[in-house]
Amino acid sequence: MRPSGRELSEMRAVSIETGVTKHAEGSCLIRMGDTHVLCTATLEDRVPPFIKGSGLGWVTAEYGMLPRSTTSRMRREAAVGKQGGRTVEIQRLIGRSLRAGVDRVALGERQITIDCDVIQADGGTRCASITGGWVALRLAVNKLMKAGDVISDPLISPVAAVSCGIYAGQPVLDLDYPEDSEAGVDGNFVLRGDGSLIEVQMSAEGTVFSRDQMGELLDLAQKGVSELVAAQAGATA
């Protein structure tokens, strides 16, 4: 029995509310159970120096957790004076995941920055950030298309992510914090809407796993991502 009472292949309740900020070109508040992340997209007519003049667009991301997104207060990284290694790793993951669903030629020489701010954390914050980040990106690109600033849709596929793991000896979908903290195997799966894999992060946290078990977790991830893609479509329709 999972602590939440969910079935092994059951996602947490997912909701995506769009248009939650006034100024961003795209925004949403994604809730995956008790994990809540605010995602905003900012359009800029510039690109990083390393691709300037190439005609290619760029999608990047920043990620952060608010001080009371967890059970005890965390210091703001700005107060410490630098980002932690976990933060840097997660925002790089978000950026390269979203770029996998973008035709950068069609986007043109402009940058879209996705900001992901964790309001409340209960496991799977990077997965929620990727999933909600794509919604914010979709909304920002819709504005570009409506204004006639791009000729064809630069988004070639939705991108979503979900965690899977082995908890109490069983493969489970969409780990919340009580499961994540005790899972024998923990994994994050990033996929495109067509089922193509973008990134898989898996590690043994207390027990090893077999190739068959990895296949079971991938099957669960594909099921979960298909549900998330449907939620994205509903939010951006």
From TrEMBL:
Phosphate binds at residues 86, 124-126. It is an enzyme of class 2 (transferase). It holds the Pfam family RNase_PH_C. Signal peptide: none annotated. Keywords: Nucleotidyltransferase, RNA-binding, rRNA processing, Transferase, tRNA processing, tRNA-binding. Its EC number is 2.7.7.56. CDD domains: RNase_PH_bact. GO terms for molecular function: tRNA nucleotidyltransferase activity. It comes from the Bacteria. Belongs to the RNase PH family. Phosphorolytic 3'-5' exoribonuclease that plays an important role in tRNA 3'-end maturation. Removes nucleotide residues following the 3'-CCA terminus of tRNAs; can also add nucleotides to the ends of RNA molecules by using nucleoside diphosphates as substrates, but this may not be physiologically important. Probably plays a role in initiation of 16S rRNA degradation (leading to ribosome degradation) during starvation. This is Ribonuclease PH.
